[in-house]
Amino acid sequence: MTTQTVTIPAFSGGSFSAYLATPSTQPEAGIVLIQEVLGVNENMRRTADEYAREGYVVLVPDLYWRLEPGVELDSEIKEQWTKAFELLKAFDLDNGIEDLKASLAFLRQYPTSTGKVGSVGFCLGGKLAYFMAVRTDADANVGYYGVDIDKNLAEATKIQKPLLLHMGENDEYVPPSAQATIQQALKDNPLVTIYRYEGVNHGFSRAGSFAYRQAAAELAHDRTLALLRQHLGSGVVQGATV
């Protein structure tokens, strides 16, 4: 596996950086890995590396580049968590989605790409993975504890590719009423699968954080890989089957 920082041309002009993790296998399906409110931090890079080891080429775009390029925040430091929410408040959703479309195009045109590309997002990225399902032709999309999806369900009729949503039962940012609204609105769409994990909070898959819960995180990861393998490809690592 190799890693590098690449530059993505923005559709609106300018460019932004992205972390790219590439496995040794060829050809490769791609994953646009979508950041939390914390930016492209160590956790996002580590997650990208994990998916690269599974045989996918993984791109983590810096979606805060218009506000402050290179943001890396720690959820366990109060002041940084506060800054994350300030950035979230200033974040332009439509521009972010356009940047994700540019990231999708970059991976589809990558020299070793199979052309199959999906998305996996966490927190803010979980919401954006939902929008990848409704506003792009990404081949499969996975959202972990996506915030405010319940407020954006008018576009749900546009979902034409598989969407998997992971929710924590005790998510303090996606309360039970919001989860129920999402489940009710999407329950009749055969392309949508929703899993709820008992007794866990927002960020249950964020390794190294207070919210992390290993059993739920590993189960969600296994379910995510199953969807990606089905719709993007098997993710076979050289010398082993994963």
The CATH H-level superfamily is Alpha/Beta hydrolase fold, catalytic domain
Major sheet description:
8 strands, mixed
Tell me the number of helical segments per DSSP (H or I, 4 or more residues long): 6
- Uncertain stretches: 237-242
Overall tally of structural domains: 1
Order of helices and strands: EEEHEHHEHEEHEH
Write out the strand line-up for the largest beta sheet, numbering strands in chain order.
1-2-4-3-5-6-7-8
Average pLDDT over all residues:
94
Total strand count, please?
8
Strand content: 15-25%
Helix content: 25-40%
Rg, alpha carbons = 16 Å
What is the CATH architecture annotation? Answer: 3-Layer(aba) Sandwich
What is the CA–CA distance across the termini?
Answer: 15 Å
Query: Under the CATH scheme, which class?
Result: Alpha Beta
How does the helix and strand content classify structurally? alpha/beta
Summed up:
With 242 residues, the protein is an alpha/beta fold.
Describe the model:
- The protein is of the alpha/beta class and 242 residues long.
- The protein has a single domain (2-231), classed as Alpha/Beta hydrolase fold, catalytic domain (Rossmann fold), CATH 3.40.50.1820.
- The chain is built from 6 helices and 8 strands.
- α1 (42-53) links the parallel β3 (28-34) and β4.
- The protein is globular and about 45 Å long.
- The two termini are 15 Å apart.
Labels describing this entry:
242 residues; eight-stranded mixed beta sheet; 6 helices; 22% strand; 8 strands; alpha/beta; single chain; disordered C terminus; Rossmann fold
